[in-house]
Amino acid sequence: MLRLTDLQFDYPAPTGAVDGFRLAVPLLEVRGGESIAVIGPSGCGKTTLLRLAAGIITPRSGRVMIDETDLSTLGESARRNLRLARIGFVFQDFRLLEHLDVEENILLPFRLGGLRLDPAARDRASRLLERLGIAHLRRRSITRLSHGERQRTAICRALVTEPSMVLADEPTGNLDPANKRVILEALLDAAREKNAAVLAVTHDHDLLDAFDRVVDLGEGLQRTDGVGRVTEAPS
Ligand code: ADP
Q1: Among 7, 44, 201, 219, which is best to mutate for testing ligand 1, by the most ligand atoms less than 8 A from CB?
Q2: Domain 31-43+83-232 belongs to what topology?
Q3: Atom 27 in ligand 1: residue holding the nearest Cα
Q4: CA atoms within 13 A on the CB side of 211
Q5: pLDDT at 176
Q6: What's the CA-to-centroid distance between 1 and ligand 1, angstroms?
């Protein structure tokens, strides 16, 4: 379960610019087993929302709860450990390690997070490789993968720890139209089976019916001046 309450976040105006960026989220809750698509125009704060939910960046005020844990009560390293153990993140640029092969990338959260890499975890990795249609690539170097194959690898890695929450930034962005729905449904089904909450940014509006709910962040878009005052009403 993920719950954001009364969240306020500001990026200051860059040097020489007038406007900064403010994201305000009064309440957003994603329950276990539920999936939410986040849509909105470029620059409205979709990636910022995912980074706040993962505790990668910290809000000015308000609260991010993951299950029963309030992220603001944790220090940097505790937040990192919680992220590795409980959150699966599919980054827009994948963040795969090129000197490792596909399976090693998928098992990376275990190496980094001190989680137990037992036979059950290896088994889960094998099943995800099958499910995402890349079992034949398990020993292949990342450098020899297509964009779509990298994306599938990143999705497997996000799911392998059986996280309570999956955050995905454009998880179908690099796939051809025929594969978009297949891959998205594989991600959503795998998450649902384990009662994980899913929050996914997407531009693929023809796939929105695969989600339980859609949140349009464009509705809440705000601009601020250099001292954080709102200069533009929500559009
Ligand atoms: P989206 O994902 O909806 O395209 P982002 O969350 O990436 O939007 O960005 C929201 C706004 O915040 C944009 O105006 C962007 O320029 C600004 N922004 C993003 N990252 C930073 C940063 N690290 N520092 C300052 N401003 C940023």
Answers
A1: 44
A2: Rossmann fold (3.40.50)
A3: 11
A4: 22
A5: 87
A6: 25
